[in-house]
Structure formats: C-alpha cells, structure tokens
Design a protein that fits this description.
Radius of gyration: 44 Å
Strand order of the largest sheet: 2-3-1-4-5
Helix content: 25-40%
Strand content: 5-15%
Structural class: alpha/beta
Number of strands: 5
Order of helices and strands: HEHEHHEHEHHEH
Distance between the termini: 121 Å
Length: 296
C-alpha cells in the first residue's frame, strides 16, 4: 500500500472559488510551507499584523481597460457632402400646364405664382430690359435667363451673328437653348419662376417656339413684344458690340416677327410704353394666359 505524501510532497491546491461578492470573502486554511532548496523564505509579520494569507485562486479578472474595438471606417455620406456647401437638388421636370382654371369671381395673380415665361421679340424690342425689371419686382423668387447671355459664354470661336447665320451659328444657338431649358427646369423644380427671352421666328416653329416647348415644357407661357420698326431701329442704334445689328438686319427680323399676328399668342406693342408700364401689361397678359392657356 502506498504511503500518503509527506510534507515535502506537492502542496494540495484549494478548489476553485466563485467570483468575489460584496460580502466577506472566505479565507483558505493555511497550507504547510514547501520545503526544498528552491522554496522561498518565510516572511515575517510586519508591523501591521500577521502576513496576509494567500487568496484562493479565482477565474480571470477583467481588465480595467476595455478591449480596443476597431473604429468603423468612415464612409462619405450626405453629412460629408453638406460640409462642402453642396445642396442636393430635386430632379427637374418640365413645367406643366395649369390644370385648374379660376372661378369666375377670382382673378389669377401672376405676381405670386410660379411661372415659366418666354418673352419673344426682335432685336431692340426691349426684351432684356423688361424681363429683368419684371423678375426684379415680383413677390416670389424669379430668375431671368437670357439666351444671348448664354450664347456669349463661348469666348474663343463665338459665332457672331453679325458674320451671318451658318452651321456654326445654328449649332451654338441650339446648345445655348438646351442650356437655358435645363437651367429653367432646375429653377422651377426648386419653386423659382423663370423668364426667358429670345428672338423666335414664327416661320421656324421646330427650331424656335417648338424647341423651347420641348426643353422647358408645355406650361411655358410665350408673350410677344413687338413695337414699331422706328422704335426698334432707334433702340438698336444705342447698342454696342455684337449686340448691335445693321439697320437692314433689324428691318428684316422685324418683318419676320410680324408673322406672330394671327398666331393666337398674346402680343404687346410697347412702342409708347416705358419698362415699368410694359411689365404691368405683361402681368395682365399672363393673368389671362393662366386662366386660359394659349394653344400653341
């Protein structure tokens, strides 16, 4: 029969204890000191009392420092885009035709409605001056989009109308009109009215009025400014640069514009009207057009 190990044998370990609680912790009974050349010397009691008893082994103690969790990768999103000042725009669409007409007792107020207006007229008719004044004095946000201004964005290689009408002039005109139409749709999609101006000929509906309707939408309200030839010639003479045309060219354009009579579009003869008066007449014409959109 084997003998139990003596004092020099292995020290029996205490059984695992449950994690410490807030109550008193049970002490493990003292174990006999290990003997042998490698055994540590017994510690003498300190001034504060007897040497502490070895604690019972417990499970791994959680570290005071929480484990490091890798930070999520930054994915650019709307917040990152907003920090650059970018404002997302709603998708633009063509302006629609007003679907509900006013009651007999109600009068449409064009000064507070979101509109898309096309001001048509020959060179010297006052389109740009009237359009700017009308846009400046409305009670709702309104933008003025001038086809001539957009055409002149092209600096090197600009197709000057004084050099005649050719394939290059036609291409730049079409490009400028599409650009104006795209700008108008974006403004309208954000609740901003637009007034565009262009010298549209009645004998070229596909290139002129039909093109504007295709780019902006069927709700576009066209209005013609057509003063007398003597007034147009006088105003054209005050122009400078490539905006000024020869008297012969002005007379030819004015003659072609006469085709708008009988077209069904509203026509304003502003020969005897200043700019503010013409803008007031324009509001009256637009009120009637909103009540009964022209067929064109």
């Amino acid at each position: 029969m084997s003998q139990p190990p003596g004092p020099s044998g292995p020290v029996p370990q205490a059984p695992p204890q449950p994690p410490r609680s807030s109550g008193p912790v049970p002490q493990t009974p003292p174990q006999p000191p290990a003997s042998g050349p490698g055994a540590p010397a017994p510690r003498s009691p300190g001034p504060s009392g007897p040497a502490p008893q070895p604690a019972a082994p417990v499970g791994p103690v959680p570290s005071a420092v929480p484990p490091q969790v890798p930070a999520p990768r930054h994915v650019p999103g709307p917040a990152a885009a907003d920090s650059t000042g970018h404002v997302p725009l709603p998708p633009g669409g063509p302006v629609g035709v007003p679907s509900v007409g006013p009651t007999p007792a109600a009068v449409p107020d064009p000064t507070s409605a979101t509109l898309a207006v096309l001001l048509i007229g020959p060179a010297g008719a006052g389109k740009t001056s009237v359009a700017k004044y009308w846009a400046d004095h409305r009670r709702v946000p309104t933008a003025h989009i001038s086809l001539d201004d957009v055409r002149e964005w092209v600096r090197s290689g600009f197709a000057d109308p004084q050099s005649g009408w050719n394939d290059n002039s036609e291409a730049q005109y079409r490009l400028a009109r599409r650009t104006c139409g795209f700008a108008a749709r974006n403004f309208l999609a954000n609740g901003i009215s637009c007034i565009l101006d262009d010298a549209v000929f009645p004998d070229r509906p596909v290139v002129g009025l039909g093109g504007w309707k295709r780019h902006v939408g069927p709700g576009l309200l066209p209005v013609v400014l057509l003063p007398g030839l003597d007034v147009v010639l006088e105003r054209n003479a005050k122009r400078t640069g490539n905006r000024r045309l020869t008297d012969e060219e002005v007379a030819r354009i004015h003659g072609r514009m006469a085709g708008w009579y009988g077209s069904g579009l509203p026509i304003i003869d502003n020969s005897q009207l200043d700019v503010p008066s013409t803008a007031r007449v324009l509001d009256e014409v637009l009120a009637r057009a909103i009540a009964s959109p022209p067929s064109w």
